[in-house]
Amino acid sequence: MKLRTMLPGAAVAIGAALLAAAPAGATTASETLTAGSLGFASTPGNVNFPSTALTGQDKSVTATQPLDIADATGSGAGWNITATSTLFKSGSYTLPTGATTIASAPNAATCDANVTCTPGGSTTVAYPYTLPAAATAPTATKLYNAPARTGMGDQTVTPTWKLAIPANAYAGNYTSTWTLSLVSAP
pLDDT digits over 38-90, tens only? Predict the structure, then answer.
């Protein structure tokens, strides 16, 4: 009877000793992440300023332009948005060079819905920013940037554009062609 009582206890002790003596299994896991691209997630939309009645006074109007950036490069190099434009023109009439500005830095980029991102925040652009304009679009200038180690993932930057309308402007439908580019590196 004493042997029967000792056997279960001995079996547990021997099993525990075997488990403690067994080496831990070593294993590894791996994943290769390949670089994607940098670009606008969607084509930048048109900027439509509200209709404005001339009053004999200088006026200004504003409009926002969401810019959806997709940085899937995995490089952390950062990026910048550059812009240029032609003069606002209606027939033979134009608005002045420098009529379009961004008064202050857009709020930091915000992650798109259901996306983990590292938002960019402009650090090398001085505001107010003036959109370059001429009869033929001049060299583009930087309007916003994401410094190195930021700007990764899908995010949206929304500048608020301001259009200055001088008191001596002629009535008409004015249009301007804008070119926005997304460039790697801040």
Answer: 999 999 999 999 999 999 999 999 999 999 999 999 999 999 999 999 999 99
Domain assignment present for residue 79? The answer is yes
Which of 159, 152, 92 is closest to 127 using CA atoms?
159
Q: Domain range holding 176?
A: 35-184
Could you give the C-alpha distances from 92 to 58, 96, 100, 166, 173, in angstroms and in order?
20, 13, 19, 16, 11
Instruction: Tell me which residue of 82, 59, 69, 48 sits closest to 161, measured CA to CA.
Output: 48
Please check the confidence at residue 165 and state whether its pLDDT lies above 60.
yes
Looking at the predicted structure, is the pLDDT value of residue 120 above 90? no
Is the CB of residue 76 less than 8 Å from the CB of residue 149?
yes
My answer on whether omega of the bond before 23 falls inside 30° of 0, hence cis, is no
Strand pairing category for 89-90 and 93-94: antiparallel
Q: What is the pLDDT of residues 13-36, one digit of tens each?
A: 555 555 555 567 889 999 999 999
- Structurally, the chain folds into a number of domains equal to 1
- Between CA 162 and CA 49 the distance in angstroms is 9
